[in-house]
């Protein structure tokens, strides 16, 4: 009896403690070692990082194929492969398709295969074709998919090593929960990386370097390049309307997942009425990076790379519409560009405008100090600089745009908001910055009220440890005058 009492009084509590410790270890320690990416980060990106350098999971439980018979990654050994995970319901996916079409045309016979993996949200390829009818008409401008498409199957499938699922066995095998996602697989059948680049030109350049071959140019591009070009010594060319038909093909392939050149319908691209393109001396062709719309003189000068603060003159002259496309040579001096521009305006367009150089004294801001980020934190995160005056927008409703680049790009962006020059006095180099512009800096407020611009600089200083000191400097400008 005493033994039983002893066991109940002393042994059982000890056993209970060990059980509780064991459960705690299993729940919070052992399970955490399964390496599931933390919530709140890019789950797919982290999952693919773990797959990099390993054999790419084979395509599995595919329901059907479009533009090809059944394929396997094993059968594609010796080629690079791009697997693009997408869905008909995903707007950015549909707007990325033109890039994949172009890549397939450029490299399909040069050692690269492109395969689209559609998630398991449809029953058949026929149903997929029905769902894509609007995309073919409105987004792809009458074009259809030209590369192999595999319709994933297997239903809702657990992603290995996690508590998450994905629609489709192949989609789950790659940990895809974000769309679109493109995966690059090497000739040896191993995952290399998630493949992305901001523009089609950059994607093609990246693949040319990887494959060691030049992209094949389509026939429309060869015809386009005969018109949209610069000859030796030419720094600026004006292309008049009516435009050649191939211009439509060029702009079509400049659309991306964010929907450049949006028309009246959301996500529907349209061809711009006029544009400024840049001449690529290395590739001997023009490249993108243009904005849509018919441009007045002020907007066109900005597109050509000039600052608003560099010009003064009659607002009526600045508001004059200038039709046509423009090709500028990258690296041309301001004087070269402006001289060529003035000549075209007068000789070809008969606009009778002249740019008269002048020198004025103005406020400029000298940026100095050691860059050290002190983010807003909280709901605003730790990865961006926020541009605001009185107070920031709510974190879930920031309404002013933004950008990315190095410190000089950032200072240039900030300076434009107040029509002021900011000088990087210490020539500090900081790469890979991102910033968000809040609504309090929109609408030209900072150009009209210098005190608000200085308030913005103080807020930037608090987040970056940079100092901004105002000085008076002489600056060269051009006065826009009527030549009549």
Note the main attributes of this structure.
alpha/beta, single chain, 484 residues, six-stranded mixed β-sheet, 21 strands, Glutaredoxin, 33% helix
Structure description:
The protein is of the alpha/beta class and 484 residues long. The chain folds into four domains: 2-34; 43-211, 3-Layer(aba) Sandwich (Glutaredoxin); 219-351, no CATH class; 362-482, no CATH class. Helices cover 33% and strands 22% of the residues. It has 15 helices and 21 strands. It has a six-stranded mixed β-sheet, with helices on both faces. The protein has a four-stranded mixed β-sheet with strand order 9-15-10-11, with helices on one face. The longest helix has 29 residues, at 2-30. The N and C termini lie far apart (119 Å). Residues 1-15, 17-41 and 258-268 have low confidence and may be disordered.
Name the CATH architecture of the largest domain.
3-Layer(aba) Sandwich
Strand order of the largest sheet: 1-4-3-2-7-8
| Rg result | 29 Å
**Rounded average pLDDT:** 87
Question: What percentage of amino acids are in beta strands?
Answer: 15-25%
Number of strands: 21
CATH topology of the largest domain: Glutaredoxin
List low-pLDDT spans: 1-15, 17-41, 258-268
Structurally, the number of domains stands at: 4
State the end-to-end distance: 119 Å
Shape: globular
Percent range of helical residues: 25-40%
Structural class designation? alpha/beta
Oligomer: single chain
By CATH reckoning, the class of the largest domain would read Alpha Beta
Largest sheet: 6 strands, mixed
- Tally of DSSP helical segments: 15
For CATH, the homologous superfamily of the largest domain is named as Glutaredoxin
